[in-house]
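Give me C-alpha cells for this 154-residue protein.
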Amino acid sequence: MRAKTQQLTFSILILTAGMVMAQSGSAPGPVGDGPQGDELHDRDQIQASAPVLEQDRTRLRETLPDEVQQAVNEMAMTREQYQEQVQEQQRDAADTTDAEREQLREQLREQLQEQARDREQIRERLQELRETLPSHQQMMEQAREQVRDSRRGE
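Here you go.
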C-alpha cells in the first residue's frame, strides 16, 4: 500500500513538473541554445525576480537578527565569487587549444602514475612495519612476563 502511494506521489510530481516546464517555456532542449535561449533565460530571470518578491524578501531580511543578516550577506558574496570562478574556468576551458588540452591530460596521467607509485610504497612500508612490530598477542605475553618478574622480585 505504501509503495503504491509513493509511486502515485512520484507520478504526480513528474506530471506537475512537466506541466510547469511546458507552461513556462523553459523546457530543456534545442530552444535553450543560442540567442533565443538566452532571451528566454533572461525573461525567466526577470519573471523570477518580480519587484513584489524583492520587497517581501527585503522586509523579511529586515526582521532577521544582525548575525543572520551578516551570514546571509557572506553567503551571497561567497556565491557570487564561486559563480565568477566557474565562469572564468568556463572561459578558460573554451579558450584552450587541443595541444593545451593534450598537455593537461598528459600531466594528469603522470600525476595518477605518481599517486599509484606512492600508494604502492605506502603498502610496502606498512607491510614492513607490520612484520617488525610485535603482534597484540606478543605484547600481552611480554606484559604478563613483566608482571610475573616484578612479583618475583618483591
